[in-house]
């Protein structure tokens, strides 16, 4: 399984500490365990910022980064080894493992944090911390600060400034390294195979959850522990619900099915959407809408390159879709005037994409100084135009109603343009129909 190497975590920590002011400390808690119900826990997934800097997969952990600390700049608090608990819950790294396997300079039991961390904070003029992300930890941190303040008469020096850590850290996360792109490509390839499998399995009479099961099988078979987000399998008019979640409707002959799904590898997401006919053949109206969305998808790629700004790809999709809706008779009027009036929004109400990385809607500012961010190599994003014609839309002919189409790919900005990571899933009408025809013949 492709993973981020240990050397990269070290490089990231050094890069962050290079951005920090002298005589400062950065503090990050691990993601907490969440209860699903009663004594059943949700599957654990590490906090993305914590994972980005450490690769350490355990809960009940805290990172302290202290530039210039004589006894080591990277301190990790984590659970101690405990054979009795490990018998029930799985192996732990312990303090020795934190140092030998995860690169910590120093490691302490999490149970000792109240005694040790205030001493590491004391004397530091600035604390980098993401206030508001973890209220319970916010409270604990304030208690430690107040403990230091209470000793000011004895010479203790509390920090005098708090700085949002996420602002620095998220800008670093926006630029993907070669290793990160390699992992994201692996996630995209697994997800592509899952989408192909779902297309091949589709037939009338199945339910949306049958196709979701095919996705999950391929994700796990490929080594992914979990989907990157809740999979959307939306047949017929359900495809017009952008974040449809039920996945329990029957697949009907003559309907389209929209699948928005991707897996996660080493905490890196893929995000793919494909739309295809349940029975393997597009109707004339479905084909017209589909090919319009596909044209917008492919046009967007031409506007993703260094020096172009973030919104150019979206603007390109709006231009293509609005012109196409006029040509099909779903909108009437001058294209530029319709765009200015946002007349396309009842059909295309979301943006053409988002940053992609450890979070499926990844971190990073879209505007800098009030202007759209200029794209640079290493930035990763989705391209996902769509058209959704509500089943109750009385402003269009009945033949169009209930058609929902979205086509989504994952791309990384390169020095000369962009690299599409999700080419493993058929996208043209001819390719989709050929794949599904072959599958039905085999069945």
Automatic annotation (TrEMBL):
* SUPFAM superfamilies from the UniProt entry: Creatinase/aminopeptidase (SSF55920), Creatinase/prolidase N-terminal domain (SSF53092)
Query: A Gene Ontology MF term for this entry?
Result: manganese ion binding
Q: What class of enzyme is it?
A: hydrolase
Residue ranges of the Aminopeptidase P N-terminal domain?
4-138
Annotated GO biological processes are: proteolysis
- Look up keyword Manganese and say if it applies: yes
Task: Print the keywords alphabetically.
Answer: Aminopeptidase, Hydrolase, Manganese, Metal-binding, Metalloprotease, Protease
Keyword Acetylation in record: no
The EC number on file is 3.4.11.9
Pfam families (alphabetical)? AMP_N, Peptidase_M24
The entry's cellular-component GO terms read:
cytosol
Required cofactors, per record?
Mn(2+)
Q: Which reactions does this protein catalyse?
A: Release of any N-terminal amino acid, including proline, that is linked to proline, even from a dipeptide or tripeptide
Extract the signal peptide range.
none
The family assignment reads: Belongs to the peptidase M24B family.
| Protein name, UniProt field | Xaa-Pro aminopeptidase
Q: Which organism is it from?
A: Stutzerimonas stutzeri (Pseudomonas stutzeri)
Q: What is the lineage of its organism?
A: Bacteria, Pseudomonadati, Pseudomonadota, Gammaproteobacteria, Pseudomonadales
């Amino acid at each position: 399984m492709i993973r981020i190497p240990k050397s990269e975590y070290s490089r990231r920590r050094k890069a962050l500490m290079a951005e920090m002011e002298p005589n400062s400390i950065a503090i990050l808690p691990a993601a907490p365990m969440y209860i699903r119900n009663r004594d059943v826990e949700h599957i654990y997934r590490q906090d993305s910022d914590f994972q980005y800097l450490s690769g350490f997969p355990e809960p009940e952990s805290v990172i302290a980064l202290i530039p210039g600390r004589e006894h080591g700049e990277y301190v990790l608090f984590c659970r101690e080894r405990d054979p009795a608990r490990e018998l029930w819950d799985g192996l732990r790294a312990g303090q020795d493992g934190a140092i030998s396997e995860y690169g910590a300079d120093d490691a302490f039991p999490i149970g000792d944090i109240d005694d040790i961390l205030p001493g590491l904070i004391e004397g530091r003029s600035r604390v980098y911390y993401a206030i508001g992300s973890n209220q319970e930890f916010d409270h604990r941190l304030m208690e430690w600060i107040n403990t230091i303040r209470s000793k000011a008469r004895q010479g203790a020096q509390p920090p005098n400034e708090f700085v949002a850590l996420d602002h620095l850290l998220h800008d670093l996360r926006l630029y993907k390294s070669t290793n990160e792109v390699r992992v994201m490509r692996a996630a995209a390839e697994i997800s592509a195979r899952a989408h192909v499998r779902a297309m091949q399995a589709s037939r009338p009479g199945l339910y949306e959850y049958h196709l979701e099961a095919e996705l999950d099988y391929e994700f796990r078979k490929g080594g992914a522990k979990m989907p990157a987000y809740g999979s959307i399998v939306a047949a017929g008019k359900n495809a017009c619900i952008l974040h449809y979640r039920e996945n329990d409707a029957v697949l009907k002959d003559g309907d389209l099915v929209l699948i928005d799904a991707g897996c996660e590898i080493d905490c890196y997401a893929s995000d793919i959407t494909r739309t295809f006919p349940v029975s393997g053949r597009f109707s004339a109206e479905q084909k017209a809408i589909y090919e319009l969305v596909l044209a917008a998808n492919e046009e967007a790629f031409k506007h993703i390159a260094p020096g172009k700004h973030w919104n150019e790809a979206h603007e390109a999709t709006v231009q293509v879709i609005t012109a196409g809706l006029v040509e099909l008779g779903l909108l009437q009027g001058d294209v530029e005037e319709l765009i200015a009036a946002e007349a396309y929004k009842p059909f295309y109400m979301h943006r053409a994409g988002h940053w992609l990385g450890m979070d499926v809607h990844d971190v990073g500012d879209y505007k800098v100084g009030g202007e759209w961010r200029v794209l640079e190599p290493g930035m990763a994003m989705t391209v996902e135009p769509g058209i959704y014609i509500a089943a109750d839309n009385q402003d269009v002919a009945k033949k169009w109603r209930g058609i929902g189409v979205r086509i989504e790919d994952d791309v990384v900005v390169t020095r000369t343009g962009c690299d599409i990571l999700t080419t493993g899933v058929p996208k043209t009408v001819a390719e989709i129909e050929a794949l599904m025809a072959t599958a039905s013949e085999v069945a």
